[in-house]
Design a protein that fits this description.
This protein is about 30% helix and about 20% strand. By secondary structure, it is an alpha/beta fold. The longest helix is centred in the middle third of the chain and has 29 residues.
């Protein structure tokens, strides 16, 4: 007997409906056509309403140069459209087909030691290659001409995870493109020499033709060259996105995006500079079990993606139902964890959640990556969880377009990460992202929702701004923080901040450079600590990794060093500046001490942690004019209680009084907003 299923709504974020998007990557080219029919039927059963296809379709759509075969893609799109499922249509350019790299091996990427990387994986191309660009855009044009007006297409998906593997190419073509980028940036070779400080080690250039990418050297390289190459590489990939998007927009009125990779292990692209080119902000995220608390890093990634979207809703393009395949130890998710992770992204602003992938591959390097439909099939616990999750996402459609608000901001910069983590610095033990995660994680523990903002972003409306290790900062961006404090805000700034300008030139006159006057302190030298060493602090805690001889220039000491050569000297300071206060932290605090410092600053600023928050319970609120949705995610192995009343959308029933959430449990409670 054939069961007729109701057609699901299509997507969100302007993708065609009033609900949330719930979907997946689908690779039908890996399966026989009879499987496609079964897959579409099961997608409807699971509540899927948005499917990304043709992400890696180049060698199927264009099996030989200039010969296009869209027959299979036509059928798949028609099957999805007939089932009421929207299509996120990939341009297919993420991986080069064998005919291209065979005919034109010069498109292959080259790494810093001058050796090529060969086909057999993915992204086997130099981002600067005009040959790759020519063939990629021809494919994009042919695809857009065929499907630009197709009613199934809700979103265009440029390439895939741009720069995941090939962000930096050091070939001669890239070298020439880098020189062109430098000419546009600096105008003259004299200005480039000044920017890079090439008077050091006889590196002075007489002509742009002499400049190379920062290829492997016998000693430490030029840091100005390295940072500019990072900037160039991010811009070069953005340029490719723009080229594909220009073709798409000339032939279709559907929104265009690409999937970002805001995650702990991806650092190559400055996404703050990409956002204006996206019709939809989309991100891929996977739990990273190399980190001590992967779910807290998930929260940071989601908060950052919301920041990239300017607070507007965004799309989670990929996450996993279970284990991935690319970490040293690929850990499956516990029962309820897929729901909890999905809810965390929605809580922090996602209006759509999609998985990689629909059906688990049986061949290829990703065959052990989890999927919505696993190898075990529809009798598996994963499948039953997926179907239940699809039902929940349908109920959550009511919160589409609602917003997350925060009183606290963290300043985060990929450009600063490139600079702060360079070689030849005071210690290799200091990693920028670890310091950012530490402060974001402490606020997570306290139950405080955080916005992640770029340096120089407006800080109006925030009571507190946290600035961890902002080593590279422009004067005008430092001034935004100082003005925020002068107007009555609070700032927490940590060691190794304000040290250099955007040319990696040290600000002289004492550290912390650009923030010295705001903080009312002066530091003459850095005293990093040896591995495993710690210094006692006057509040009973300890500091590690870093220390400094802080001289007070108007600030007061809040915590002092209690041991070592700095004993009696300030470790944490507070300075009144205008109507507000600026706090300086000169060492890596213990987790408890960091939370206590934040609690003190929050109290001073009048910021109250979420009243429902408690250890292990993540609480985030989304609001519109009429309702508030309270996300309560229990990451602990114990039951927790709360008194939030309303309608629980997970269990789909009212809750009043004291409610218990079991270990690993999730509740999403709709409440009516009180009117004054």
């Amino acid at each position: 007997m054939t069961t007729t299923l109701p057609a699901p709504a299509t997507g969100a974020l302007g993708l065609g409906s009033t609900g949330l998007a719930f979907g997946c990557d689908y690779n039908p080219e890996q399966w026989d056509p009879e499987v496609w029919v079964q897959d579409v039927r099961l997608m409807r059963e699971a509540g899927v309403n948005l499917v990304a296809i043709n992400v890696f379709g180049w060698s199927h759509v264009e099996p030989r140069q200039g010969e296009y075969d869209f027959a299979a893609l036509d059928r798949v799109i028609d099957l999805l459209h007939g089932a009421g499922i929207g299509v996120d249509l990939g341009t297919g350019t993420a991986s080069t087909p064998p005919w291209l790299t065979t005919r034109h091996p010069e498109v292959l990427p080259v790494v810093a030691d001058g050796t090529s990387r060969w086909p057999g994986g993915r992204q086997a191309f130099c981002p600067s290659s005009p040959i790759y660009r020519e063939h990629a855009l021809a494919l994009v044009r042919a695809t857009a001409e065929r499907y630009g007006d197709h009613p199934a297409v809700k979103l265009w998906h440029v390439s895939n995870e741009l720069g995941c593997h090939n962000a930096h190419c050091y070939c001669d073509v890239s070298a020439e493109a880098f020189r062109g980028w430098l000419r546009a940036r600096y105008g003259t070779i004299e200005e480039l020499n000044a920017a890079w400080g090439t008077s050091f080690w006889s590196q002075r250039y007489a002509d742009f033709a002499e400049v190379l990418p920062p290829r492997a050297t016998l000693s430490s390289g030029n840091p100005g060259q390295a940072i500019d190459f990072d900037r160039f590489s991010s811009d070069e990939l953005l340029g490719h996105h723009r080229a594909e998007a220009e073709v798409l927009r000339s032939l279709s009125d559907k929104p265009v995006t690409t999937n970002f990779m805001v995650a702990a292990h991806i650092t190559a692209l400055d996404y703050w500079s990409w956002t204006a080119d996206m019709d939809v902000i989309a991100n891929d995220h996977y739990l990273d079990h190399r980190l001590p608390r992967p779910h807290v890093e998930l929260a940071f990634a989601a908060d950052t993606t919301r920041g990239l979207a300017g607070g507007a809703p965004w799309l989670l393009m990929e996450h996993s139902t279970g284990a991935v395949n690319w970490q040293p130890n690929n850990i499956a998710k516990a029962p309820g964890e897929m729901l909890r992770n999905t809810a965390a992204h929605i809580a922090r602003g996602a209006d759509g959640v999609c998985f990689f992938q629909w059906r688990a591959s049986v061949q290829g390097s990703e065959k052990f990556h989890s999927a919505m439909l696993p190898h075990a099939g529809t009798e598996s616990s994963t499948w039953h969880e997926v179907v239940a999750l699809g039902g929940l996402v349908e109920r959550l459609g009511e919160l589409r377009g609602s917003r997350v608000t925060a009183d606290v901001a963290i300043v985060f910069s990929w450009e600063n990460q490139w600079a702060a983590d360079l070689e030849a610095h005071p210690t290799t033990a200091l990693k920028y992202l670890e310091q950012v995660h530490a402060f974001h994680g402490a606020l997570w523990d306290l139950g405080v929702t955080v916005d992640v903002v770029a340096p120089g972003a407006p800080l109006d409306g925030y009571a507190v701004v946290v600035v961890p290790e902002l080593y590279l900062v422009r004067d005008e961006h430092a001034a935004v923080i100082a003005d925020h404090v002068a107007a009555g805000g609070r700032a927490i700034i940590t060691f190794f901040s304000g040290i250099v300008d955007d040319r990696d030139r040290v600000r002289t006159g004492g550290y912390p450079g650009a923030f010295r006057e705001l903080l009312g302190v002066r530091v003459d030298e850095f005293l990093p600590l040896a591995a495993g060493d710690a210094v006692a602090l006057s509040d009973g805690s300890t500091g590690s990794v870093w220390s400094e001889p802080v001289a007070l220039r108007g600030a007061e000491a809040v915590v002092t060093y209690a041991s070592g050569p700095l004993a009696g000297g300030p470790a944490v300071t507070r300075n009144t500046h205008g109507q507000g206060s600026a706090w300086y932290v000169s060492t890596v605090l213990e987790d408890d001490a960091r939370r206590e410092l934040l609690r003190r600053v929050l109290d001073e600023a009048g910021v109250t942690p979420d009243p429902a928050a408690q250890p292990g319970l993540e609480v985030v609120r989304r609001r519109d004019e009429q309702h508030e949705w309270v996300f309560l995610l229990n990451h602990s192995d114990r039951a927790v209680q709360h008194t939030e009343a309303g309608h629980d959308l997970v269990a789909d029933h009212p809750v009043t009084g004291t409610t218990v959430i079991g270990p690993g449990g999730t509740q999403i409670i709709r409440k009516d907003r009180k009117r004054s």
